[in-house]
Amino acid sequence: MNPFILYQGKSKELSFFPYIIEFANYKTQNIQLHSQEIKPSEGIRICFITEGKFDWNIDGQQYLLYPNDTSITCPWQNIGGSKGFFDIGSFMWITIRPKVFEPNGELILGDWSGISEADQRVIGKILSFNKKPILNRLKPCQQIFQNLEMEIFAQEIGYRTRINHLIDELLITAIRHLSKQDNLRRDFPQTFLKLEKTLRENLSDPWTVEEMAGLVGLGTTAFTEKVKAFSGFSPLNYLINIRISEAIKLLNREDLSLTDIALETGFYSSQHFSSTFKKMTGYTPREFRKKE
Description:
The chain is an alpha+beta fold. It is built from ten helices and twelve strands.
């Protein structure tokens, strides 16, 4: 198949897939200035390198990509060539427009996706808090892209369903690799510190065990066992301890109301905050503030 770029609204092949913004198999054999300027990715953008070496800039960071490497970026992230143009080589990409995707990790793909709501929430969190958008040596993505290309152009019976399934498969493959690529399973103490840092920086988020487990690439059962062995607490009780420790710091700030502190540390109301705080410390937040 020859190189191509399909655009939503311009390419009839995408008319039944309004959530696909772009789909392309691109090859460049000579340098073209201003061919890859840095700009927002518009949706969830997944790129797979098939040939060559690419020097890309993603959110101000420079990355080198080689064959079988994949990049995955969010709608609010900028991506482009560090030099402003495409390097010589070839790559495939697809840009997906979710129904909802916020920087806090809230993700709703849309009715087309067969991924469960719970898994979509986990995927949203992993993408939102991901610090390394490059997935090294992710060869399986190539076959998925090739299958997508075949289905879109052949349009055989059932191709619409098949394309939806393939995009789900592409997302799941990328997310699984992303959560495992730093060998987090083998170095849980370091992973635990990274997890705690992420939780402390995003305490207002209504974390679930599934979302926390997804961040470190473990199933909920294995994650629960490791957290309990490492901290002595279940994941949710561990999270509550972090919330209370951060709340204690904020109670020293007279400019913050108890409601402000409750919401900032992830409690859904000042009453919930007060009852939990007293259970953990023996004091209500108001009593603790006066005591200090």
